[in-house]
Amino acid sequence: MFRSLLRWIFLLIPVLLLTQASGAEELKRFDYTAQKMGIPLSFALYAPSEKAASDAVDLVLVKFDEINQKMSDYTPESEVIQACRTSEQTGNFVPISSDLYQVLEKARQFNTRTEGAFDVAVSPLVKLWRRSRSFHQLPPKAYLDEAKKLTGNSNWELDPQKGVRLLKKGVRFDLGGIAKGYVLDQALLVFQKTGITSVLINAGGDMRIGNPPPGEKGWKVGFASLEKDAAPVLFLDLAQCGVATSGDTFRYVEINGIRYSHLIDPRTGEPMRIHRIVSVIAPNAIDADALASAFSILPPEKRIEISRQFPSVDLLIFEQKTQSKEKNLSENDFSIFSTDKFRPYLPKIKKE
User: How many CA atoms lie within 13 A of 306 on its CB side?
Assistant: First the structure.
């Protein structure tokens, strides 16, 4: 009896393996686009049927709406805005959702590890400079000085049981440099719960990548340089990671002949003035998102020191050295900083 059972088990194993292999081959690619959180979304995924794919995407879009309602700084009814207002009025801790807590906790960690370059309490400064971009006028120095006093971890507290508390009137959070990464990570989890694991989610250039397409090493992802509408200068096959790019190719203003980026250094209160594009590959999208924002602000002398804190993260930074406004920049017009993953491609980039 035992030998007979073993024989059937050994005969069944090849059949099971064959069934799994044929099931993998039946996966088909499906592509979808949408608009959420004010950014274009695209999904590339492999699923056994169109219904399975579309049902999963619908669930993911619901997740985007849920998180946007918690973290938007444009929606007055959002959880983060209401929490700040309530704490400011009462002086007490305000209970918050698990989603918002996780993002704020990560934000505090990145603020410390990047020596203040990443700071979600930068919101008062961001609003001043948004107005400047609209009216092409520099903010009054007195307003900037007051807004700078509201930045940093020292002006707010976070507690896993009590929630968040503001310690100074006027403190507000701008989660634009981290919330997108968080929702991308959550979106991948939603796909995985439906059984879809081979997926690439693109949110305005920031990505969360799951397993590679069937039979492939990874999803082919392109990385561009400083030029507007430039074709990617290199491609990498990537899987199980987050990718984020931060820069001012399109979002900047020139006032009195000086270029001011939309990216604000919370430590000085001033926008970045050097044209720079930062791409980050990290184990997840929230880390990639926050670090892309931080390294867009950090000066060259700090890059190596701080990047060593993140050994599982890779960086590619293009930085313009001159004030040339030419569309096609030569090798002498920009410098490149990179970590190991990108280094084999640098000679080709510089040659071109």
Answer: 22
How large is the C-alpha radius of gyration of the chain?
23
Tokens 């991948």 belong to which residue?
A: 188
Provide the pLDDT for residue 17: 38
List Cβ neighbours of 33 (8 Å cut-off, separation of 6 or more): 40, 41, 42, 43
Amino acid code (one letter) for 351 = K
Q: How far apart are CA 14 and CA 8, in angstroms?
A: 11
The pLDDT value recorded for residue 131 is: 87
Of 282, 322, 278, which Cα lies nearest the Cα of 300? 278
**What's the token pair of residue 20?**
């799994």
For 289-336, the pLDDT digits (tens) are 999 999 999 988 898 999 999 999 999 999 887 654 545 555 556 788
Greater pLDDT, 139 or 214: 214
Pick the closest to residue 285 from 187, 158, 211 (CA basis): 187
Cα–Cα distance, 104 to 23 (Å, whole number)? 41
Written as six digits, the tokens of 290 are 């926050």
For residue 183, give both structure tokens: 């929702």
Question: Residue 206: which of 308, 275, 152, 287 has the closest Cα?
Answer: 287
Tokens of 70: 């918690």
- Band the pLDDT of 225: cuts 50, 70, 90: confident
Q: What token pair was written down for 308?
A: 């060593």
What is the arithmetic mean of pLDDT over 246-255?
71
Please determine, for residue 13, whether its predicted confidence score (pLDDT) is greater than 70: no
pLDDT given for residue 8 in this prediction: 33
- State the Cα–Cα distance between residues 254 and 169, nearest whole angstrom: 32
HSE-up (13 A, CA, CB side) for residue 229: 1
Who's near 274: CB < 8 A, 6+ residues apart? 319, 320
* Partners of 237 in the β-ladder: 220
- How far is the C-alpha of 291 from the C-alpha of 118, rounded, in Å? 8
- What would the two tokens of residue 231 be? 């074709």
